[in-house]
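Q: Two folds, back to back.
A: First:
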Amino acid sequence: MRVLGLISGTSHDGIDAAVVDFTTNGGFTAHGADLHGTVLAATSVPYAPELRARLIAALPPAQTTLAEVCELDTLIGQAFAEVAADIAAEVGGVDAVCSHGQTVYHWVDGAHALGTLQIGQPAWIAEKVGAPVVSDIRIRDITVGGHGAPLVSFLDELLLRSRAGVSAALNLGGISNMTVVRQDGLVAYDIGPANALVDAVIVEHGLNPLGYDDDAAIACTGQVDEALLAALLEDSYYALTPPKSTGKEHFHLGYVQEHLAAQGREIAVADVVRTLTELTVRTVARDVEAAGIGFLAVSGGGCRNPLILDGLRAALPATEVVLADELGAAADSKEAILLALIGWSTMHGVPAIVPGGTGAREPRILGTITPGVGPLQMPEPVAAIDSLVLTEAAAS
């Protein structure tokens, strides 16, 4: 089954897509399947500037209207559909799509997630591509006590389960999240901000039309403000016990502005960007060291920030820090590959929740299904995925 995974993450900068051709070695058994995924194509397409501006303007803590939510749901769904149609045509068609859509709100009260909202109407994708679309994948996890995040723990566990010692996968998107895998189980959770705060400052001051600190060019011109950093590190979120989740509802531009106002002095913008970059390094390194992690595979946009990656390697001399490419999931497209895997699992009746991964009480099959242009035909159910190997298609 060829499955197309689609996602726009917490950086809200565009749409990542990956088509994975899933095959089984020896078919299915009563226990499960040994799965092999060949990544046929992957891409990242920026949002149109005007669409991204509207999206950012509607996000919490800003006020918005149901009319704007409805329009964004359609416009983002249509943008996803265009990307899906192009990459599906590139590989000669797909059998199913799994679209995460765009998170616009993640409702967390203390240690509990109560709701989550992703927009990007999947019917536009189903109509454009003609294949069934799995969507709305986070909420089922929340209904059984989970945080709906980080769902990537499902993929991480499959890729890391054979490693000795303590290993982990770290994703540096708008929010940093980590899956820690031990022989006796795993824990996964959101650590804190990765790119979210830096991006917010970059956009607010118009420092880069891309909306992020490309190659840490701005941060490299600044200095860490230790007093500001110390105040940021006192946030009560970091003291919560995993599993836990957070998002831009908490870590946003207003959050930075409140901390700057509390300092009661002028801090150069470059120093703010440098300090927020260091915040990611410190919070991640602290948790990695505390967990005794010996192997850390990093993905997401933040892994392309040399200050973050070099900072983690310097702070964690006892940890092997590599890009997720070494696990077969390219660092830039890992989340889209995850969505393809969730899509395959939902279509085959496989729960995509790992105990310890999100805090959910029980495994559940994720998402809802929008039929394609023809009758909805479900494949033979599978009990579980016993193993997963990911490879990239050979260059033609």
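A: Second:
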Amino acid sequence: MENKDIFKLKGSKKIIVVTNRHLVKENFLNAIEKCVLYGADAVMLREKDLQYEELMEVGEQTKNITDNYGVPLIINGNFRASLELETYGFHTGFERFKSMNRSEKNSLCIGVSVHSSREAVEAEKLGADYVMAGNVFETSCKIGLKGRGINFIDDIANKIFIPVIAIGGIGRENIESVLGTKASGAAIMSYAMNL
């Protein structure tokens, strides 16, 4: 199986590519375009170390790619940038989401990172459009944090009605087991950034 074939495994599920330009060996924008060409259902721009102006520049370049292919762009962590760029969605952590005003949520699709079924249930009650639950497996992004396993995903999916996207250490060797759960899809970072 070639690297790009991971996207062919998704069936009716979704694969969201989460960016991290520090993991890319060649050109960051080329990596994003490859993922979109191979079949990514959405791109989440997660470049938390960038200042607003830098994020806007990278965001505009990324949005040119995603718009060109009709793929939704989600901004992680910067609501203002998401509004300014008129992206499809905004993604944030559970605590930040709890402090958002309902009017702030606007017409954007809002996603929330959760680490327990309790957080997932509360996020749904507060108006989240989807949750991203993890980490499913051990990941180099969260060194020392044990994976919660695929049963964790089904546990959350059984308690809420909005989509659950699995994240954390998902790659070619385990994505089929993740897509076999009640998750609506999977988010991939390290694997995607090295295609």
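Q: And?
A: The two ends are 13 Å apart (CA to CA).
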